[in-house]
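Aim 2 progress update. The chain analyzed this quarter is reproduced below.
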Amino acid sequence: MNTGRMFIGGEWVDSCSGQMRSITDPANQQLINRVPEADQDDVNRAIAAARTAFDKGPWRQTTAQDRGKILFAVGQKIRERAVELAELEVKNCGKPLAEAQFDIQDAANCFEFYGGLATKIHGETMSVPADSLSFVLREPIGVCGQIIPWNYPLVMAAWKLAPALAAGNTCVLKPSELTPLTALELAKIFCEVELPPGVVNVVTGPGPGCGEVLASSPFVDKVAFTGGTATGQKVMAGVAKELKRISLELGGKSPNIVFADADREAAVDGALFAAFANQGEVCSAGSRLLVEESIHREFIAQMLAKIPKIKLGHGLIAGTKMGPLISYAQLEKVESYVKIGVEEGAKLLCGGKRPKGLEAGFFFEPTIFDGVTPKMRIAREEIFGPVLSILTFKDEAEAIAMANDTEYGLAAGVWTKDIHRSLRLVRGLRAGIVWVNAYHPTYNELPWGGYKKSGLGRELGLHGIEEYLETKQVNFHGDPAPINWY
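Predicted C-alpha coordinates:
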Protein backbone atom coordinates (compact mmCIF):
# COMPACT_ATOMS: atom_id res chain seq x y z
CA MET A 1 0.00 0.00 0.00
CA ASN A 2 1.34 3.44 -0.94
CA THR A 3 0.45 5.05 2.37
CA GLY A 4 -0.12 8.78 2.25
CA ARG A 5 0.17 9.21 -1.50
CA MET A 6 -2.11 9.63 -4.50
CA PHE A 7 -1.29 8.94 -8.13
CA ILE A 8 -0.75 11.84 -10.54
CA GLY A 9 1.31 11.88 -13.73
CA GLY A 10 2.73 8.42 -13.09
CA GLU A 11 4.08 9.40 -9.66
CA TRP A 12 3.00 8.94 -6.05
CA VAL A 13 2.52 12.44 -4.67
CA ASP A 14 1.36 14.33 -1.58
CA SER A 15 -1.60 16.68 -1.65
CA CYS A 16 -0.81 20.35 -2.17
CA SER A 17 -2.23 21.19 1.25
CA GLY A 18 -0.51 18.33 3.06
CA GLN A 19 -3.80 17.42 4.73
CA MET A 20 -4.65 13.76 5.27
CA ARG A 21 -7.80 11.73 5.80
CA SER A 22 -8.02 8.67 8.04
CA ILE A 23 -9.66 5.63 6.42
CA THR A 24 -11.34 3.36 8.94
CA ASP A 25 -13.05 -0.02 8.95
CA PRO A 26 -16.83 0.54 9.24
CA ALA A 27 -17.19 -2.72 11.16
CA ASN A 28 -15.09 -1.55 14.11
CA GLN A 29 -13.90 2.01 13.28
CA GLN A 30 -10.26 0.91 13.46
CA LEU A 31 -7.75 2.83 11.36
CA ILE A 32 -6.78 1.09 8.12
CA ASN A 33 -4.71 3.77 6.43
CA ARG A 34 -4.34 7.49 5.81
CA VAL A 35 -4.58 9.09 2.39
CA PRO A 36 -4.15 12.62 1.05
CA GLU A 37 -7.11 14.97 1.32
CA ALA A 38 -7.00 16.31 -2.21
CA ASP A 39 -8.42 19.70 -3.15
CA GLN A 40 -8.99 21.61 -6.38
CA ASP A 41 -5.26 22.27 -6.84
CA ASP A 42 -4.56 18.54 -6.80
CA VAL A 43 -7.40 17.82 -9.22
CA ASN A 44 -6.09 20.49 -11.58
CA ARG A 45 -2.64 18.86 -11.39
CA ALA A 46 -4.21 15.54 -12.34
CA ILE A 47 -6.21 17.09 -15.16
CA ALA A 48 -3.06 18.73 -16.52
CA ALA A 49 -1.24 15.39 -16.42
CA ALA A 50 -4.09 13.65 -18.25
CA ARG A 51 -4.31 16.51 -20.75
CA THR A 52 -0.59 16.29 -21.53
CA ALA A 53 -0.75 12.51 -21.79
CA PHE A 54 -3.58 12.76 -24.31
CA ASP A 55 -2.39 15.74 -26.36
CA LYS A 56 1.38 15.17 -26.34
CA GLY A 57 2.07 11.74 -24.90
CA PRO A 58 2.44 8.37 -26.64
CA TRP A 59 -1.01 7.08 -25.67
CA ARG A 60 -2.85 8.36 -28.76
CA GLN A 61 -0.29 6.62 -30.96
CA THR A 62 -0.58 3.35 -29.05
CA THR A 63 -2.23 0.74 -31.24
CA ALA A 64 -5.50 -0.88 -30.30
CA GLN A 65 -3.66 -4.19 -29.98
CA ASP A 66 -1.23 -2.72 -27.46
CA ARG A 67 -4.01 -1.03 -25.49
CA GLY A 68 -5.76 -4.39 -25.33
CA LYS A 69 -2.61 -6.13 -24.09
CA ILE A 70 -2.27 -3.59 -21.28
CA LEU A 71 -5.87 -4.13 -20.18
CA PHE A 72 -5.43 -7.91 -20.24
CA ALA A 73 -2.31 -7.48 -18.11
CA VAL A 74 -4.27 -5.37 -15.62
CA GLY A 75 -6.91 -8.09 -15.40
CA GLN A 76 -4.25 -10.71 -14.76
CA LYS A 77 -2.59 -8.61 -12.05
CA ILE A 78 -5.95 -8.20 -10.31
CA ARG A 79 -6.41 -11.98 -10.32
CA GLU A 80 -2.92 -12.52 -8.93
CA ARG A 81 -3.72 -10.17 -6.02
CA ALA A 82 -7.34 -11.27 -5.60
CA VAL A 83 -7.00 -12.43 -1.98
CA GLU A 84 -5.32 -9.21 -0.86
CA LEU A 85 -7.70 -6.96 -2.79
CA ALA A 86 -10.81 -8.75 -1.54
CA GLU A 87 -9.72 -8.44 2.09
CA LEU A 88 -8.90 -4.76 1.61
CA GLU A 89 -12.31 -4.18 0.04
CA VAL A 90 -14.02 -5.83 3.01
CA LYS A 91 -12.13 -3.69 5.51
CA ASN A 92 -12.74 -0.47 3.59
CA CYS A 93 -16.42 -0.74 2.65
CA GLY A 94 -17.80 -3.42 4.97
CA LYS A 95 -19.25 -6.01 2.62
CA PRO A 96 -18.96 -9.78 3.31
CA LEU A 97 -15.88 -11.48 1.93
CA ALA A 98 -17.84 -13.69 -0.49
CA GLU A 99 -19.29 -10.58 -2.14
CA ALA A 100 -15.89 -8.86 -2.26
CA GLN A 101 -14.30 -11.93 -3.86
CA PHE A 102 -16.93 -11.86 -6.59
CA ASP A 103 -16.33 -8.13 -7.09
CA ILE A 104 -12.59 -8.59 -7.58
CA GLN A 105 -13.10 -11.28 -10.22
CA ASP A 106 -15.73 -9.13 -11.90
CA ALA A 107 -13.29 -6.20 -12.05
CA ALA A 108 -10.67 -8.44 -13.68
CA ASN A 109 -13.27 -9.70 -16.15
CA CYS A 110 -14.17 -6.12 -17.02
CA PHE A 111 -10.61 -5.18 -17.95
CA GLU A 112 -10.28 -8.37 -19.98
CA PHE A 113 -13.57 -7.80 -21.80
CA TYR A 114 -12.54 -4.32 -22.88
CA GLY A 115 -9.03 -5.56 -23.62
CA GLY A 116 -10.59 -7.76 -26.27
CA LEU A 117 -12.93 -5.02 -27.43
CA ALA A 118 -10.12 -2.50 -28.03
CA THR A 119 -9.49 -3.99 -31.49
CA LYS A 120 -13.19 -4.11 -32.37
CA ILE A 121 -13.83 -0.35 -32.64
CA HIS A 122 -15.14 -0.19 -36.19
CA GLY A 123 -16.14 2.71 -38.41
CA GLU A 124 -18.15 2.81 -41.67
CA THR A 125 -17.40 3.40 -45.34
CA MET A 126 -19.64 4.44 -48.22
CA SER A 127 -19.39 5.89 -51.74
CA VAL A 128 -21.41 9.10 -51.82
CA PRO A 129 -21.10 10.38 -54.52
CA ALA A 130 -19.66 7.71 -56.76
CA ASP A 131 -16.34 9.47 -57.38
CA SER A 132 -15.53 9.98 -53.69
CA LEU A 133 -14.94 7.93 -50.59
CA SER A 134 -16.76 8.79 -47.40
CA PHE A 135 -16.01 7.09 -44.13
CA VAL A 136 -16.65 7.38 -40.41
CA LEU A 137 -13.91 7.27 -37.79
CA ARG A 138 -14.40 6.45 -34.11
CA GLU A 139 -11.93 8.38 -31.98
CA PRO A 140 -11.29 8.85 -28.26
CA ILE A 141 -13.01 11.80 -26.61
CA GLY A 142 -9.96 13.01 -24.69
CA VAL A 143 -9.61 13.58 -20.95
CA CYS A 144 -12.28 11.80 -18.90
CA GLY A 145 -13.17 12.74 -15.33
CA GLN A 146 -14.58 9.70 -13.54
CA ILE A 147 -16.30 9.85 -10.16
CA ILE A 148 -17.20 6.60 -8.41
CA PRO A 149 -19.15 5.71 -5.24
CA TRP A 150 -18.25 3.85 -2.07
CA ASN A 151 -20.43 0.74 -2.38
CA TYR A 152 -18.46 -1.08 -5.13
CA PRO A 153 -15.07 0.67 -5.17
CA LEU A 154 -12.96 -1.57 -7.42
CA VAL A 155 -15.81 -2.71 -9.67
CA MET A 156 -16.91 0.86 -10.34
CA ALA A 157 -13.31 1.86 -11.08
CA ALA A 158 -13.11 -0.96 -13.62
CA TRP A 159 -16.45 -0.03 -15.21
CA LYS A 160 -15.15 3.50 -15.80
CA LEU A 161 -11.48 2.98 -16.61
CA ALA A 162 -11.56 -0.14 -18.79
CA PRO A 163 -13.78 1.19 -21.63
CA ALA A 164 -12.18 4.64 -21.48
CA LEU A 165 -8.69 3.20 -21.87
CA ALA A 166 -9.75 0.71 -24.54
CA ALA A 167 -11.05 3.66 -26.57
CA GLY A 168 -7.76 5.55 -26.15
CA ASN A 169 -8.73 8.20 -23.60
CA THR A 170 -6.85 9.44 -20.55
CA CYS A 171 -8.50 9.56 -17.13
CA VAL A 172 -8.72 11.29 -13.79
CA LEU A 173 -10.41 8.90 -11.37
CA LYS A 174 -11.91 10.22 -8.14
CA PRO A 175 -12.93 7.39 -5.83
CA SER A 176 -15.17 8.11 -2.87
CA GLU A 177 -13.24 9.80 -0.08
CA LEU A 178 -14.54 6.98 2.16
CA THR A 179 -13.26 4.05 0.07
CA PRO A 180 -10.14 4.98 -1.94
CA LEU A 181 -7.90 2.08 -1.01
CA THR A 182 -8.49 -0.45 -3.80
CA ALA A 183 -8.45 2.37 -6.39
CA LEU A 184 -4.96 3.27 -5.17
CA GLU A 185 -3.94 -0.37 -5.40
CA LEU A 186 -5.26 -0.38 -8.96
CA ALA A 187 -3.01 2.60 -9.69
CA LYS A 188 -0.10 0.52 -8.43
CA ILE A 189 -1.08 -2.18 -10.94
CA PHE A 190 -1.09 0.40 -13.74
CA CYS A 191 2.51 1.21 -12.78
CA GLU A 192 3.43 -2.47 -12.92
CA VAL A 193 2.05 -2.90 -16.45
CA GLU A 194 3.92 0.26 -17.53
CA LEU A 195 0.95 2.36 -18.52
CA PRO A 196 2.37 5.68 -19.78
CA PRO A 197 2.47 8.46 -17.15
CA GLY A 198 -0.65 10.59 -16.91
CA VAL A 199 -2.94 8.16 -18.71
CA VAL A 200 -4.61 7.26 -15.40
CA ASN A 201 -4.52 9.55 -12.38
CA VAL A 202 -6.18 8.85 -9.01
CA VAL A 203 -7.07 11.72 -6.67
CA THR A 204 -8.40 11.09 -3.18
CA GLY A 205 -10.66 13.84 -1.98
CA PRO A 206 -14.26 14.87 -1.30
CA GLY A 207 -16.89 15.61 -3.91
CA PRO A 208 -17.32 19.34 -3.16
CA GLY A 209 -13.59 20.05 -3.52
CA CYS A 210 -12.70 17.55 -6.24
CA GLY A 211 -15.71 16.25 -8.17
CA GLU A 212 -16.94 19.77 -8.87
CA VAL A 213 -13.59 20.65 -10.45
CA LEU A 214 -13.76 17.66 -12.77
CA ALA A 215 -17.29 18.62 -13.80
CA SER A 216 -16.53 22.25 -14.52
CA SER A 217 -12.97 22.18 -15.87
CA PRO A 218 -12.66 23.26 -19.53
CA PHE A 219 -9.76 20.82 -19.88
CA VAL A 220 -11.94 17.76 -19.18
CA ASP A 221 -13.82 16.45 -22.23
CA LYS A 222 -16.17 13.96 -20.62
CA VAL A 223 -17.46 13.21 -17.11
CA ALA A 224 -18.76 9.85 -15.92
CA PHE A 225 -20.46 9.77 -12.53
CA THR A 226 -22.03 7.03 -10.42
CA GLY A 227 -23.83 8.05 -7.25
CA GLY A 228 -26.94 9.68 -5.86
CA THR A 229 -29.41 11.46 -8.11
CA ALA A 230 -29.15 14.81 -6.31
CA THR A 231 -25.36 14.81 -6.67
CA GLY A 232 -25.70 13.70 -10.29
CA GLN A 233 -27.84 16.75 -10.98
CA LYS A 234 -25.10 18.98 -9.56
CA VAL A 235 -22.50 17.24 -11.74
CA MET A 236 -24.71 17.74 -14.77
CA ALA A 237 -25.09 21.44 -13.98
CA GLY A 238 -21.30 21.77 -13.83
CA VAL A 239 -20.85 19.92 -17.10
CA ALA A 240 -23.49 22.10 -18.79
CA LYS A 241 -21.24 25.15 -18.52
CA GLU A 242 -18.74 23.54 -20.88
CA LEU A 243 -21.22 21.42 -22.90
CA LYS A 244 -19.03 18.38 -22.39
CA ARG A 245 -20.05 14.75 -22.73
CA ILE A 246 -21.58 13.09 -19.68
CA SER A 247 -22.85 9.73 -18.50
CA LEU A 248 -24.69 9.28 -15.22
CA GLU A 249 -25.60 6.13 -13.30
CA LEU A 250 -27.77 7.34 -10.45
CA GLY A 251 -30.28 6.17 -7.87
CA GLY A 252 -33.14 3.74 -7.87
CA LYS A 253 -36.20 2.52 -6.01
CA SER A 254 -36.52 -0.71 -7.88
CA PRO A 255 -39.64 -2.93 -7.82
CA ASN A 256 -39.36 -6.68 -7.34
CA ILE A 257 -42.66 -8.27 -8.39
CA VAL A 258 -43.76 -11.71 -7.17
CA PHE A 259 -46.78 -13.44 -8.74
CA ALA A 260 -48.68 -16.29 -7.09
CA ASP A 261 -47.39 -18.84 -9.61
CA ALA A 262 -43.70 -18.08 -8.91
CA ASP A 263 -41.36 -20.73 -7.58
CA ARG A 264 -41.89 -19.87 -3.94
CA GLU A 265 -38.53 -20.86 -2.49
CA ALA A 266 -36.60 -19.14 -5.28
CA ALA A 267 -38.71 -16.00 -4.99
CA VAL A 268 -38.30 -15.77 -1.21
CA ASP A 269 -34.52 -16.14 -1.46
CA GLY A 270 -34.47 -13.73 -4.39
CA ALA A 271 -36.49 -11.10 -2.54
CA LEU A 272 -34.16 -11.21 0.47
CA PHE A 273 -31.04 -11.10 -1.68
CA ALA A 274 -32.47 -8.25 -3.76
CA ALA A 275 -33.01 -6.17 -0.64
CA PHE A 276 -30.11 -7.09 1.64
CA ALA A 277 -27.11 -7.92 -0.57
CA ASN A 278 -24.28 -5.50 0.15
CA GLN A 279 -26.28 -4.26 3.17
CA GLY A 280 -28.87 -2.84 0.78
CA GLU A 281 -26.30 -0.26 -0.35
CA VAL A 282 -26.98 -0.98 -4.00
CA CYS A 283 -28.45 1.44 -6.54
CA SER A 284 -30.43 -1.40 -8.11
CA ALA A 285 -31.60 -2.96 -4.83
CA GLY A 286 -35.08 -4.48 -4.96
CA SER A 287 -36.24 -2.26 -2.11
CA ARG A 288 -39.92 -2.32 -3.15
CA LEU A 289 -41.34 -5.84 -2.97
CA LEU A 290 -44.67 -6.13 -4.79
CA VAL A 291 -46.47 -9.34 -3.81
CA GLU A 292 -49.70 -10.66 -5.29
CA GLU A 293 -52.45 -10.41 -2.66
CA SER A 294 -53.37 -14.12 -2.69
CA ILE A 295 -49.91 -15.17 -1.39
CA HIS A 296 -49.09 -12.09 0.67
CA ARG A 297 -49.34 -13.53 4.20
CA GLU A 298 -47.70 -16.83 3.36
CA PHE A 299 -44.86 -15.14 1.48
CA ILE A 300 -44.11 -12.83 4.41
CA ALA A 301 -44.06 -15.76 6.83
CA GLN A 302 -41.52 -17.56 4.67
CA MET A 303 -39.34 -14.47 4.45
CA LEU A 304 -39.39 -13.84 8.18
CA ALA A 305 -38.43 -17.45 8.84
CA LYS A 306 -35.17 -16.85 6.93
CA ILE A 307 -34.22 -13.55 8.53
CA PRO A 308 -32.35 -15.23 11.45
CA LYS A 309 -30.04 -16.85 8.86
CA ILE A 310 -28.74 -13.42 7.81
CA LYS A 311 -25.71 -13.30 10.08
CA LEU A 312 -24.36 -9.82 10.78
CA GLY A 313 -20.69 -9.27 11.51
CA HIS A 314 -17.32 -8.29 10.16
CA GLY A 315 -17.06 -9.34 6.54
CA LEU A 316 -13.90 -11.36 7.17
CA ILE A 317 -15.63 -13.60 9.74
CA ALA A 318 -16.79 -16.89 8.24
CA GLY A 319 -20.53 -17.11 7.73
CA THR A 320 -21.18 -13.36 7.67
CA LYS A 321 -24.04 -12.53 5.32
CA MET A 322 -24.35 -8.81 6.00
CA GLY A 323 -21.75 -6.29 7.08
CA PRO A 324 -21.94 -2.75 8.42
CA LEU A 325 -23.15 0.34 6.63
CA ILE A 326 -20.41 2.56 5.28
CA SER A 327 -20.53 5.34 7.87
CA TYR A 328 -22.27 6.74 10.89
CA ALA A 329 -24.01 9.30 8.68
CA GLN A 330 -25.46 6.50 6.56
CA LEU A 331 -26.52 4.63 9.69
CA GLU A 332 -28.37 7.69 10.94
CA LYS A 333 -30.03 8.13 7.55
CA VAL A 334 -31.36 4.56 7.60
CA GLU A 335 -32.59 4.98 11.17
CA SER A 336 -34.41 8.16 10.17
CA TYR A 337 -36.28 6.32 7.42
CA VAL A 338 -37.37 3.60 9.82
CA LYS A 339 -38.85 6.32 12.01
CA ILE A 340 -40.55 7.84 8.96
CA GLY A 341 -42.02 4.46 7.98
CA VAL A 342 -43.50 3.92 11.45
CA GLU A 343 -44.91 7.45 11.50
CA GLU A 344 -46.46 6.94 8.08
CA GLY A 345 -48.36 3.91 9.38
CA ALA A 346 -46.36 1.06 7.87
CA LYS A 347 -46.04 -2.08 9.99
CA LEU A 348 -42.49 -2.89 11.10
CA LEU A 349 -42.18 -6.68 10.86
CA CYS A 350 -38.52 -7.10 11.81
CA GLY A 351 -35.32 -5.18 12.37
CA GLY A 352 -35.42 -1.43 12.52
CA LYS A 353 -32.55 -1.03 14.97
CA ARG A 354 -28.85 -1.50 15.59
CA PRO A 355 -28.00 -5.07 16.65
CA LYS A 356 -26.68 -5.74 20.12
CA GLY A 357 -23.05 -6.77 20.45
CA LEU A 358 -21.90 -4.90 17.35
CA GLU A 359 -21.91 -1.37 18.74
CA ALA A 360 -18.35 -0.70 17.57
CA GLY A 361 -19.44 -0.66 13.95
CA PHE A 362 -22.20 0.86 11.82
CA PHE A 363 -24.44 -2.21 11.77
CA PHE A 364 -28.18 -2.20 11.18
CA GLU A 365 -30.55 -5.16 11.24
CA PRO A 366 -32.32 -6.34 8.06
CA THR A 367 -35.61 -4.47 8.21
CA ILE A 368 -38.97 -5.25 6.62
CA PHE A 369 -42.08 -3.06 6.50
CA ASP A 370 -45.51 -4.40 5.54
CA GLY A 371 -48.67 -2.44 4.85
CA VAL A 372 -46.75 0.05 2.73
CA THR A 373 -48.70 2.18 0.28
CA PRO A 374 -47.28 3.68 -2.93
CA LYS A 375 -47.30 7.27 -1.65
CA MET A 376 -45.32 6.60 1.52
CA ARG A 377 -41.81 8.05 1.55
CA ILE A 378 -40.28 4.64 2.32
CA ALA A 379 -41.83 3.43 -0.96
CA ARG A 380 -40.63 6.41 -3.01
CA GLU A 381 -37.26 7.60 -1.69
CA GLU A 382 -33.96 5.78 -1.99
CA ILE A 383 -32.81 4.73 1.48
CA PHE A 384 -29.61 2.88 0.48
CA GLY A 385 -29.69 0.48 3.38
CA PRO A 386 -31.25 -2.83 4.47
CA VAL A 387 -34.87 -1.64 4.48
CA LEU A 388 -37.51 -3.48 2.44
CA SER A 389 -41.02 -2.14 1.80
CA ILE A 390 -43.77 -4.66 0.95
CA LEU A 391 -46.76 -3.62 -1.16
CA THR A 392 -49.53 -5.80 -2.60
CA PHE A 393 -51.28 -5.90 -5.96
CA LYS A 394 -54.39 -7.61 -7.33
CA ASP A 395 -53.51 -8.22 -10.97
CA GLU A 396 -50.88 -7.75 -13.64
CA ALA A 397 -52.03 -4.31 -14.71
CA GLU A 398 -51.88 -2.99 -11.16
CA ALA A 399 -48.44 -4.51 -10.68
CA ILE A 400 -47.06 -2.71 -13.74
CA ALA A 401 -48.67 0.59 -12.79
CA MET A 402 -47.39 0.37 -9.22
CA ALA A 403 -43.89 -0.65 -10.35
CA ASN A 404 -43.65 2.31 -12.74
CA ASP A 405 -45.00 4.79 -10.19
CA THR A 406 -41.56 6.18 -9.36
CA GLU A 407 -39.20 8.89 -10.59
CA TYR A 408 -36.53 6.22 -10.97
CA GLY A 409 -36.10 3.52 -13.58
CA LEU A 410 -32.90 1.60 -12.96
CA ALA A 411 -33.96 -2.00 -12.38
CA ALA A 412 -36.89 -4.34 -11.79
CA GLY A 413 -37.48 -8.01 -11.01
CA VAL A 414 -40.30 -10.35 -12.02
CA TRP A 415 -41.01 -13.77 -10.51
CA THR A 416 -43.46 -15.99 -12.44
CA LYS A 417 -43.58 -19.34 -14.23
CA ASP A 418 -45.77 -17.85 -16.98
CA ILE A 419 -43.43 -16.97 -19.85
CA HIS A 420 -46.08 -14.92 -21.63
CA ARG A 421 -46.70 -12.85 -18.52
CA SER A 422 -42.98 -12.35 -17.98
CA LEU A 423 -42.58 -11.02 -21.53
CA ARG A 424 -45.51 -8.66 -21.03
CA LEU A 425 -43.92 -7.39 -17.83
CA VAL A 426 -40.53 -6.95 -19.49
CA ARG A 427 -42.22 -4.76 -22.11
CA GLY A 428 -44.32 -2.88 -19.61
CA LEU A 429 -41.70 -2.01 -16.99
CA ARG A 430 -39.90 1.31 -17.40
CA ALA A 431 -36.45 0.22 -16.26
CA GLY A 432 -33.03 -0.20 -17.81
CA ILE A 433 -32.46 -3.68 -16.35
CA VAL A 434 -35.17 -6.32 -15.83
CA TRP A 435 -34.53 -9.68 -14.22
CA VAL A 436 -36.97 -12.58 -14.62
CA ASN A 437 -36.82 -15.24 -11.88
CA ALA A 438 -33.52 -13.77 -10.62
CA TYR A 439 -32.19 -10.57 -9.12
CA HIS A 440 -28.80 -8.80 -9.21
CA PRO A 441 -26.68 -10.80 -11.72
CA THR A 442 -24.68 -8.37 -13.86
CA TYR A 443 -22.53 -9.10 -16.89
CA ASN A 444 -19.71 -7.03 -18.36
CA GLU A 445 -20.93 -7.96 -21.84
CA LEU A 446 -24.35 -6.29 -21.41
CA PRO A 447 -25.34 -2.63 -20.94
CA TRP A 448 -26.09 -1.18 -17.51
CA GLY A 449 -28.06 2.01 -16.91
CA GLY A 450 -31.49 3.38 -16.20
CA TYR A 451 -34.53 5.30 -17.35
CA LYS A 452 -35.84 8.59 -15.93
CA LYS A 453 -33.90 9.96 -12.95
CA SER A 454 -31.76 6.85 -12.75
CA GLY A 455 -29.32 8.32 -15.21
CA LEU A 456 -28.10 9.01 -18.71
CA GLY A 457 -26.14 6.73 -21.01
CA ARG A 458 -25.01 3.17 -20.43
CA GLU A 459 -22.00 1.41 -18.98
CA LEU A 460 -20.63 -2.04 -19.84
CA GLY A 461 -20.99 -4.01 -23.05
CA LEU A 462 -20.63 -2.43 -26.47
CA HIS A 463 -22.71 0.50 -25.24
CA GLY A 464 -20.12 1.21 -22.56
CA ILE A 465 -17.30 1.89 -24.98
CA GLU A 466 -19.57 4.05 -27.14
CA GLU A 467 -19.75 6.49 -24.22
CA TYR A 468 -16.01 7.12 -24.65
CA LEU A 469 -15.87 7.58 -28.43
CA GLU A 470 -16.39 10.52 -30.76
CA THR A 471 -17.75 10.04 -34.29
CA LYS A 472 -16.00 11.79 -37.19
CA GLN A 473 -17.26 12.00 -40.77
CA VAL A 474 -14.51 12.10 -43.44
CA ASN A 475 -15.05 12.85 -47.15
CA PHE A 476 -12.16 12.07 -49.47
CA HIS A 477 -12.09 13.26 -53.05
CA GLY A 478 -9.35 11.75 -55.18
CA ASP A 479 -9.85 14.11 -58.12
CA PRO A 480 -9.53 17.71 -56.86
CA ALA A 481 -11.02 19.32 -59.94
CA PRO A 482 -12.63 22.80 -59.64
CA ILE A 483 -16.34 22.70 -58.86
CA ASN A 484 -16.88 25.88 -60.91
CA TRP A 485 -19.12 27.40 -58.27
CA TYR A 486 -17.71 30.88 -58.86
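The first strand starts at residue 6 and ends at 8. The CA atoms of residues 210 and 448 lie 26 Å apart. These observations will guide the mutagenesis experiments scheduled for the next reporting period.
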